[in-house]
Design a protein that fits this description.
heterodimer; A: mainly alpha; two-stranded antiparallel sheet; 6% strand; B: mainly alpha; EC 2.8.5.2 (chain A); transferase (chain A); SoxA (chain A); Cyt_c-like_dom (chain A); transferase activity (chain A)
């Protein structure tokens, strides 16, 4: 922890536009969603699950996106994920056996607080654990997922398929236990903190600047709806990626050192972002600019 | 995807814009004082005047990249910040302009404009050159 603090100090992280201490997640949520309702009064709530394409002024991007959705480029990756999900392990079981309801209509509850391990757990973690428990040795179980694209993309494909089994389910996560609350506060702090040489908080780009266009060719999404489409594929990437890879990219863009894939702080950030999207339908996997 | 954004500033500027789009190839057009990004890449004959040097720092993505946020006439620009026009009139004091670039958070703590000087994105000398160029806009 001390090391992280020193690192943050070295990177010039300062307290950002954090509003005065907010009371509790439920009122944070109200305030957060009201922010976007005021900013974009014409955008219907459910539309936020469509990322930047929901926003006024970005219609040109939406048109292209709609066309690309006729034959979505992520189909190939998704079918590889499906195959992985369905192929029996050496012991005859499969991924579906590890999950409630065979893995259907449960992704809206991720990430969640696990009392046993006293940690936040993501879908990726549960999928990896399932494979491990069943004696499998996929490369994503041992790889450095921050650096090794192949194994990470395979995990993204599997996770994308897992989320696709819950498409349309509305985000509903529980942050009521003391442990979850602490993780939530941690993620929230990260969200509002400025970082990197360029001195940006997540909130700067995805709240203040949502709907604006960086450099004339990089539109910016609203934070509301973040996480509902992930794992996702970007035109620029040409492959399905995990949300932690997206976070790392956002960190790098402002010349801040990204955290590791699967790191606790990214889990907490994901918890905060997901909670802020409470009530929105899951659309993963999706295409993004 | 390249979005061309044009704004109308004054009557005279409109005429210039019209001519510009007739004469220049689409895409990156000559900006400011008719500068061309090619001059920045010329290793054998690097730009010697401060205005051109400032221009090159402004358009370099890892340096100023000012058009990422500010509309600069003739460049593919973002729409995040006020357009860079009439800078000389609005910043008659170069020191104020230098301050805005060096640490915009001093003027407005909530700004998204990076503190180019304070965070060592640009050196003092580089900021001085940018001031000279931006003053011509």
């Amino acid at each position: 922890m001390k090391k992280i603090l020193m690192l943050l100090a070295a990177l010039g992280v300062v307290a950002g536009t954090m509003p005065a201490a907010m009371a509790d997640p439920a009122s944070d949520l109200k305030q957060f969603q009201a922010f976007f309702k005021n900013k974009f009064p014409t955008v219907a709530f459910d539309e936020y699950s469509n990322g930047l394409y929901a926003l006024p002024g970005l219609e040109e991007y939406r048109e292209q996106w709609t066309i690309s959705n006729e034959f979505p480029p992520y189909e190939l990756g998704l079918s590889l994920g499906k195959k992985l999900w369905e192929t029996p392990f050496k012991n005859g079981k499969n991924f579906a056996n590890c999950f409630k309801n065979g893995g259907k209509n449960i992704a809206q509850g991720y990430p969640y607080w696990d009392e046993g391990s006293q940690k936040i757990r993501t879908a990726e973690m549960d999928l990896m654990d399932c494979a491990k428990k069943n004696g499998e040795n996929f490369s994503f179980l041992t790889a450095d997922l921050s650096k090794e694209q192949g194994p990470r993309v395979q995990l993204a494909q599997l996770t994308a398929y897992f989320y696709s089994l819950s498409q349309g389910q509305r985000v509903k996560i529980d942050v009521s236990s003391p442990g979850a609350l602490k993780a939530y506060e941690d993620g929230k702090k990260y969200w509002w903190q400025r970082r990197g040489q360029l001195n940006f908080a997540c909130a700067n780009c995805h709240m203040d600047l949502a709907g604006k266009n960086f450099g004339g060719n990089q539109p910016l999404s609203a934070a509301l709806g973040h996480t509902t489409a992930w794992p996702a594929q970007r035109l620029e990437w040409g492959r399905l990626e995990t949300i932690h890879q997206r976070y790392a990219t956002c960190n790098s863009q402002v010349r801040a050192k990204p955290f590791k894939h699967g790191s606790e702080i990214y889990n907490h950030l994901q918890l905060y972002e997901t909670y802020m999207s409470s009530g929105l339908p899951l659309t993963a996997p999706a295409m993004r600019n | 995807m390249q979005k061309s954004t044009n704004i109308v500033i004054t009557g005279a500027a409109t005429v210039l814009l019209g001519l510009g789009s007739l004469l220049a190839a689409p895409g990156l057009q000559a900006a400011g004082q008719g500068l061309d990004p090619k001059v920045c890449k010329d290793k054998d004959n690097p730009p010697k005047d401060t205005v051109t040097q400032g221009y090159c720092l402004v358009i370099e993505r890892t340096k100023g990249n000012c058009m990422g946020c500010h509309l600069i006439e003739g460049m593919s620009s973002g729409n995040i910040a006020p357009p860079m026009v009439s800078i000389k009139q609005r910043f008659p004091e170069k020191a104020k302009l230098r301050e805005q670039i060096s640490d915009a958070t001093k003027v407005n703590p909530d700004t998204v404009m990076p503190p180019f000087g304070r965070h060592n994105i640009l050196s003092a000398d580089e900021i001085d050159k940018i001031v000279e160029y931006v003053w011509t806009l």
